[in-house]
Write a structure and sequence with these properties.
By secondary structure, the chain is of the alpha/beta class. It has helices at about 10-25, 40-50, 55-75, 90-105, 115-125, 125-130, and strands at about 1-5, 30-40, 80-90, 105-110, 135-140.
């Protein structure tokens, strides 16, 4: 039985990551822990842009992301996968690494943008997860 941590950003990329994971590992993967991390810095900028308080934007974002996680569970409920979900707030890379250790997963799955994989690796949380992780990190284009 293999357990993976799948770090998602939105429904489409989350769904695409799960599909690719199933195709890549076929029946070897049996458990998936979906993780979405709310980055507070991004929300602060969004709150300023929308002219709302951080608390208002955080509440909206949290509700939207809980719905995304539930939709992903429903979409893959007829597969052989056992899916758990978690929504956290904080620094994305730190939360991914902490959750991977706590959940005792065998590997981490993350998505990258097809058009700029190298550019994104240089300046984002994917690079930090790869550098900090003691376990393999699989990256799929989404």
């Amino acid at each position: 039985m293999k357990k993976a941590l799948v770090a998602i950003g939105d429904f489409e990329s989350g769904s695409e990551l799960i599909k690719q994971l199933i195709e890549f590992l076929d029946d070897c993967i049996t458990e998936v822990h979906l993780l979405h991390v709310i980055d507070k810095q991004n929300l602060e900028q969004l709150a300023i842009y929308k002219g709302k308080t951080l608390e208002e934007v955080l509440e909206e974002n949290q509700h939207e992301n809980e719905n995304i996680l539930q939709k992903l569970i429903l979409e893959y409920s007829d597969t052989h996968l056992y899916i758990t979900t978690e929504l956290l707030k904080g620094l994305i890379a730190d939360k991914i690494i902490e959750t991977a250790k706590r959940e005792n997963v065998e590997f981490i799955v993350m998505g990258t943008r097809r058009e700029s994989i190298t550019k994104r690796l240089i300046k984002n949380h994917v690079r930090y997860v790869i550098e900090l992780s003691d376990i393999p990190v699989l990256m799929f284009p989404v």
